[in-house]
Amino acid sequence: GENVEQHPSTLSVQEGDSAVIKCTYSDSASNYFPWYKQELGKRPQLIIDIRSNVGEKKDQRIAVTLNKTAKHFSLHITETQPEDSAVYFCAPLLPAGNMLTFGGGTRLMVKP
Amino acid sequence: DVKVTQSSRYLVKRTGEKVFLECVQDMDHENMFWYRQDPGLGLRLIYFSYDVKMKEKGDIPEGYSVSREKKERFSLILESASTNQTSMYLCASSSGQKNQPQHFGDGTRLSIL
User: Fold this and answer.
1) Which positions in chain A have a beta carbon within 8 angstroms of at least one beta carbon in chain B?
2) Percent composition of chain A: helix, strand, coil (DSSP 3-state, to 5)
3) What single DSSP character describes residue A92?
4) What is the number of CB-based contacts under 8 A between chain A and chain B?
5) What DSSP character marks residue B98?
6) Which long-range contacts link B39-43 to residues 24+ away (Cβ below 8 Å)?
7) Does A52 have pLDDT greater than 90?
8) What is the pLDDT of residues B39-84, one digit of tens each?
9) Share of chain B above pLDDT 90, in %
């Protein structure tokens, strides 16, 4: 199966700073790479995803970069705001079975 | 917008009871999933289904079963609830096409006393 690791497990930044969360995976067959945000007491929600034919994707203040050779992808949040405080999960997809394997999560705290 | 609805937000049951958690999606998705989420352990896949009457074991199927009699509904069953099944349970669905995201319900916080 897929081994997925996220780093760091917790991240504290000042409002306005940037935050970067890295996800490493083991299965080179993975070809879809989403990031989910889960606010306290709420459902995980997809915030950005990237497919293996693209190296970077941006959506306003968030971006995802993919390095398939090294088998890692990263979430970048710029100009962080208190409402970005949440737990973020990476979840690379194994094509056989259409299954996501979730990383352990990163708790991001943005201090005003 | 995809809507995944779980029948209960909070549920309290007793040890040994048979417990049913229901999940319904309105997007005609082929794939449906059940996860449990525990502090420090992230989301772990219990069972999933690709189609009506199809089911596959995930990473932690012991003590659980599932039922998918209709495409829009996927039920998780705790045959004889135990205290170590106290957890948050999340249902998700996705399209059967390649490389599609999963959409989650609000979750059911289940307590087994």
Assistant:
1) 1, 31-32, 34, 42-46, 49, 51, 89, 91, 93, 95, 97-100, 102-105
2) 5, 55, 45
3) P
4) 48
5) S
6) B40/A104, B41/A104, B42/A89, B42/A102, B42/A103, B42/A104, B42/A105, B43/A44, B43/A89, B43/A102, B43/B90
7) no
8) 877 899 999 999 999 999 999 999 999 999 999 999 999 999 999 9
9) 88
